[in-house]
Write a structure and sequence with these properties.
two-stranded antiparallel sheet; 82 residues; single chain
Length: 82
């Protein structure tokens, strides 16, 4: 049986969750907006630390790289005969 306090508490929790989701999306969009200069080489290596039978182990992947290329903005305009 739901009481009034449980109903209000649930509504507050939903509002807080919605606010956090919106704030997270807004902050992620801002971080992604910064441009990386053309020609920049980005290298990435994944590393994992774990234990196997009580023995600590570390594994690393091969290093991969990608070079940032120029982004071309294209504007398409419909041209129909008049």
């Amino acid at each position: 049986m739901n009481t009034a306090n449980q109903t209000v508490g649930s509504a507050v929790m939903r509002a807080q969750r919605a606010f956090l989701v919106c704030a997270s999306i807004a902050l992620c969009g801002t971080a992604a907006a910064a441009g990386t200069p053309v020609g920049t080489v980005i290298e990435n290596t994944a590393t994992v630390d774990f234990e196997l039978g009580g023995t600590p182990l570390t594994l690393s992947s091969n290093t991969t790289s990608i070079t940032v290329v120029e982004r071309i903005d294209v504007a398409v305009t419909l041209q129909s005969p008049s």
